[in-house]
């Protein structure tokens, strides 16, 4: 029991120190297209010079500055799509995400799950999974967005 506890602590601690997520396993796989945007890129985007009187743009820049990570993984490979779905479903349960929306229309299934923080007024995490069967091509897309809350 002691070994199991130590292993779990080390596993979770390494995720905190290295910023790895359960979805990073999909990055670099040949059959999966991945786009990863990290905190530094969001910080650069938020430093764009804009008219100080444009309040709406100022709000968008503030929002961008608080984004932590954006990860998007897409595949048409059936095996990889099943793996992405399995990992996403497990993560949703383990991270206690709540289902925000579910759409099932014309062979397209979309689920959106979130983690709320700050008295339920703020989102700290957004996870979307899309399964689409269009024109005989099966596609799966997994999108994870995390927000840094102050």
Number of E strands: 6
Beta-strand percentage range = 35-45%
Number of helices: 4
Given helix and strand content, the structural type is alpha+beta
What does this structure look like?
With 150 residues, the protein is of the alpha+beta class. The protein is 35% helix and 37% strand. It is built from four helices and six strands, in the order αβααβαββββ. The protein has helices at residues 2-18, 39-46, 55-65, 78-94; strands spanning 33-37, 67-75, 98-105, 108-117, 122-134, 137-147. α2 (39-46) runs antiparallel to α3 (55-65). It is globular, with a radius of gyration of 18 Å. The model is unreliable at 1-19 (pLDDT under 50).
Task: Outline the fold blueprint.
Layout lengths: L1 H17 L14 E5 L1 H8 L8 H11 L1 E9 L2 H17 L3 E8 L2 E10 L4 E13 L2 E11 L3
Helix pairs in contact: 2-3
Defining key terms:
4 helices; 150 residues; alpha+beta; 35% helix; disordered N terminus; single chain; globular; 6 strands; six-stranded antiparallel sheet
Short synopsis of the structure:
With 150 residues, the chain is an alpha+beta fold.
